[in-house]
Design goal:
Elements lengths: L7 H4 L2 H30 L6 H21 L3
Helix pairs in contact: 2-3
Length: 73
Amino acid sequence: MGPQVYGVFQTANPEMVLAVIVTIVFIWWLVFTIVAAYHLFRYATESWMTVPALAVHLAVSVWIFVFATGGFH
């Protein structure tokens, strides 16, 4: 008998791998969103569109993330 492989690689399927990749991309996207939000609140304080623009951006980003990771299975 040959060596048996145990762990994540034994049960990995394409949907799981793609969901992990999308999650990593989303975390990266979230870091840049936090940095952009900081700069908007810091330097665009007189703009009335700062909060609505961030709210729409976050809502669309979360919807894309849920759609991408939830629609794979």
